Every structure is written in structure tokens, then in C-alpha cells.
Amino acid sequence: MALHSRRAFLTMSLASVGAAALAACGAAATPTAVPKPTEAPKPAAPAEPTKPAPAAATPSTGTKLIEIDYWHRSSGDATKQLEGLAAAFTQEMAGKYKVTSVFQGSIADLNKKVRAAAAGGGMPGATMGDDYDITQYAFSKIIVPLDPYMDDPQNGLTKAAREDFLPNQLERHKLPIYEGKTMAFPQGFSAFTTFWNVDALQKAGFQKPPATWKEFPDHVRAVAKANADKQMSGWWIGGAGDRFISTLLTYGVDWITPDGKASQFDKPEALEIMTWWRQLSDEKLLAIPKENARDTGIFAQKAAYFMDSSGNTAAFYNLVKDFKWEAAMPIQGKAGTQITETYGPINAVPKNDPDKQLAGWTFLKWLGTTGPQSVWVKTTNYFPSIKSAGDSAELKDYYSKNVVAARLNKEVAPHARILGPSPALTEVRGQITANVVNEVLLGQLTPEQGVRKLKAEADKAIQRALQG
Amino acid sequence: MIRRDLGRWAPIVYALLVLGAAIALFPFAWMVLGSFKDVRESNLFPPTILPRVWHPANYVEAWTKPPSTLGRYFLNSLIVSLVGTFGQLIVGILAAYAFARLRFKGRDILFVLVLTSTMVPGEVTLIPNFITIRRFPLMGGNDLFGNGGSGLYDTYTAMILPFLAGAFNIFLLRQAFLRVPNEYWEAAQLDGSGGLGFLWRIVLPLTVPALFTVALFGFLSRWNALLWPLIVTRSESMRPVQVAMIYYQNEYLTDFGLVMAASFMVTLPIILIFVFAQKQFIAGISSVGLKG
Fold it and tell me: Which residue, A82, A349, B72, B155, shows the most beta carbons closer than 10 Å to its own?
């Protein structure tokens, strides 16, 4: 039995290997054809050096076609637009560069793929990332500083091109924690914005939201009272952690210290927010719906306010027909300030061979020009990162139909800035802050206990992240 | 017969069963009804049950919207699910047979080692699996040491290979094979059968429900896979249906009518498979003492 069985076992093992080999038959398909771009983007202006610059890299001088992937997380119509933009760039760079735009799933999926490729090979020429991704990648040294490319006499940015960028966007990832290097290059972006039901406010005698959060609770009480027939509340907060930190920023308080070593939830402003959130929650004027139902409150006229990304103007234009709505700079912590948070992805060049890095940079620079910016803005409802795009002929029609977005581009976009970067931001914002805010609003913690817990847990997360 | 056993409780029992069935079917009904709503109605709160205006065009748009049209993603999912499930069955059957019926040194330790692999989270194996795929020797332009090319990246094989051997399947089949009496093996030997013949002619026919269960679980997990295919592919023409599902979601405005239409088309094969195989599936689960 034993001898017979061993032979059988070996036979079966061989059969198993054969089956695996059979399953392994399958060839890589050729990439799908990319659609033509919806608009012909303007060619990039010839570069003029702004100052003597170090060599960006040492790419080969040959004439072979350099092929790169551009990885992104923009789903839906944006996927097709990016394919079109990559095809347009390839056409413009005929014979020199070929870019394939590859959708890589959600923010988290894209991050996993970049990390897998960093370990196993096959990094793209350029990749999209959210702010905290960029910080992680920079700390892991898997993306390259862009300053040598930006300053390069031949392939860099002209003085005019630099001045055309919104300063906060061009320098969005030029930060002390990167030793002053620029680790990412902007495309489009959005910002924390206040949306409101104009009819509901007018019924209570208000023409616009209050200027500061201090006035907000009484304002909301009055609006709710005037709209009691609709059982309207004040604000349905979508994403408690995100909104708490965004609100804190409007007080001029970043969630993390400038050196990136501790949180700032012990500041009095954090307690102030937690306190009025709790008060309004107890009065049923503030609620935290499920993430995918965050905008339903205002659409169903069950909430007077919606505070979220400026990109939501598209949803408002498409879905709101029964009441007048408006949007503007978020309510501020202190009178006279103009602070809001930048949302949305940004691009980076992963560590690669010099030819591919240069190709990646060239593509990103091209995406930052008027034509591609306009295509991108129309599809995503983001703000353009360059001032000239907002006034361009390409966006004239879009902004004439989307006047709120046009106004937000002028009034909100210039004031948007990113949160203090930290590899711990995802955990602090998405888990720790969200959990603590929920506990406070549910009455499990007092606001004082909430901010203490928030500070303690956030600090631990920051230290863990810093230790790698 | 059943009615007589239930006696006067029958109406209540049937009412509860109908209620349970309605609760179980509600998500499917919601999906089907939602698939006929336009973008505005599909985003309404509170939602409507029946569409105010029926939009069957959602199905056409859902089919054509993804970059390679939904049909291509369907085909890819079908290839990966069928070939992967078949390969998994072959590997699982042979391994389970070895653990159940062959005697060799270290068998039990090896089996425990196989079982412990179920405790390793998928996240942990993601990067090692990716490196294996990228550096697969002599494939995709790679040399013998796995350098120089892309290995099995962007192939069906990359989506199939890492999951051919699954500890859960081996365990489940081993339990089923252990239930086949040893006398059958002795009788088969007397008739001149070897190990493979015994496995093919006697063990497998007696354990069909367990095989169905493994096949169904395997098919489902491959059909629903998203992260791994995203990690190991780049061409739209290689990607499965679950990737296509993401294309219906815009960042700020999702047309849930389209999402529901696509979901229905993607779910339909799974529903049909379950409807036709539920008898075997339930028998398989109960025969190895597992509960869902």
C-alpha cells in the first residue's frame, strides 16, 4: 500500500503541476485602443529657464520610443477622459513618448498597487495619489523630487508657466518635511465648501450663512424653526473625521504641528467645535449619516447645509430642482479669515529609469497646461490649478452653465491649502477622529473627554507612523 | 405530509416563511427596480420603490459604458473563474486525497501547515504574490532568474495562479474523502485498481456534493475578485467584471440606475448557478459539517 501510494502521490503531484501549467496558458492582450481626446490641447509653451538648474536626470539620448503608464484612481467618465488625454499627449509627442492611462481602483487600491510595484517592479512613469499617499511615498523614497525637472532649462517650467499656477497648488508638496523639495505636481483640485438651501435660509430671514462658526448654532436653530414643516435640521455631516479636521482648519488650526510630530487636538478650537457639534446633535440639528448618504439630507430638504467638496456642484446642478441652492467659502472660525482645505488628487513621478522619469514629468507638465486642464475640469468639476484655465475659451461654456463653480473657482480655489502632511493622516482622519466624534455625538464621551482621547490616540498614531 | 405534521401551526409557519423569503428577495427586487430609474430618481431621498418613468436604456448604457464594453469583462471573468475553479479542483482533489488516504512521513504536520495558511491575511501575501508574478522565470521577457521583463503580469495566468491551492478547499475535500469507507479501497485493490483509479471511479462520485461546494465557492471568489486583478493587470481587455463595476461611479455624482443595471447583469450568472446547484451545494455543506 505504502509503495503504491507513494507512486500514486508522485503521479498526482505531477498531474497537479500539469494542471497549473494548463491554467497558466493565457497571453497578455494588447492594450485597448484609446479614444480620441474631446479637445485638442494646446501644445506646451517652449521652456525658458527661470534660473540655472541642475540636470533633471540623465536620460538616454537615443530616439527610441519611451512607453510609460500613468496610474490613477479616477473612475467613471474621468477614466475615459484620462485615456483621451494620454492618447492626445502620445500623438503630440509622436515617436518620443507613449503614455497609457491605467485605472487602478480606489485611492487605497492604487496605493497598494504602487507599493507592490515598488517591491516587485513595473513602476509607472507617473502616478496619481492623494496628499497622504504622496507623503507615504516620499517617506518610502519611491517617488522622486520634481525640482530638477521643474528647473531644467530644456524640460522645465517657464517663468510664465510658474506664475500661472496657484501658488498653494504648485507648492502643495514643497514642504519642510521633504527638506523643501517638491514631491508632487498639481492637476486639478477641489476644496472644502459650504453649500446651503437658499429658500430655507430666506424663510428664516437670512440671505447667506453666518460669517463664523460661533454664530452658526443660533443661525441653524432659527433656520430649523422656520422650516419646522419640513422637519429640517441644520447639517448632515458626511465623513465625521474629515469634516472635523476641515472645520478645525477653518479656525486656522492645522491638525498636526508644523514639525509633524504631534497633533493639535488639545487646542481650544478643537474643544469648541466638539462642544457645538454635541449641542446641535443633542438638539437633533446635526447628524452623521452613512457615508453614501451624506448629500441626501440637503437634496431631500432635510438639512439646510451641506459642507463638503466643491466638486459637488455637479450633483447639485443635476439633482436639485425643487429649491434654490448656493455655495461659497466655508464658514470660518474667526471673522475676516479665508481658509479652506484642498481636496483631490495630485501627481508624482515614481523612481524609475531616467528616461521613464523624464517621460513621466513631461506628461505631468503637459497635464498642467490649459487644454488638458480644461478637459479635466469639465469632467471632474475640480478647480484648475492654473489661473489662465479659468478664463480660457475652453472653459467659457462650462462656466457659463455652471456659474456657481465659476464663482467658487475665483473665491474659494485661491485660499485652499493642504493639511499638515503625515503618513498617519489616513488613520487619524478616517478612524480615530471619526470614532471619537461619533462617541461624543452619541453621548458616550463628553466633548472634553473626546478631545483628550483624540489627542492621545492621534499622537500615538503619529509616533507609530514616524517609526515606520 | 408536511401540512399534516404542522397541523394548525401551518398558516403561521407559511406566513413566516413567506416573510423570510420576501426579506431575502428584497435586495434583488430593489436592484432590479432601481436598474430602471434615471439618475435623478436613483439619487432621491427618500427613495421611490417603483420607477416613476422606466428607463430600460440603462441596460444598454451599462453594457457599453466601460472602456472595453461589459461583454469583454464578462468574458475575462468567465475565463478566470472557470479555468481557476477547474485548476483549484484538480489541485484540491489531489492534495485532499493525499492527506486523507495516503500514508507518508510528516503528513499530519504538513496538513497542519496547510491549515495555518488560512490564518495569513490576504494583505500580507499581496506583495509576495505580486513579486512572484512579475519575476516568473522565462515568461513575459524574463530571464531564468526572473529579471528583464514583466513575467506573468497582465495575463489571465496572473489572476489564476496564486489561488490554485487553497487550504480551505483541501480541508473541505479531505473531510469528505475521509468519509469514504476503507473497505471500498480494499475492494478496489482486489479488482486491480490503483490510487488514481480509486479516486476517479469511487471517491469522486461519492463526494460530488463536496466537489460542488468547492467549485461554487471557488467560482464565486474569482467572480467577485477585485483587488488582485487590479494589481496584476493593466489592460482593460484583461480585466474582470468587478473592475468594470467601478466605471459607473463618478466621484461626485453616481448614476445608481446604471450601477443597478450593471449589478444585475453581473449577479445574474451567480444567481443562476446557485439556483441550479443549490441542492448539491447544501448537501455538500451539510456532508462536511459546515454551516454558512
Answer: A349
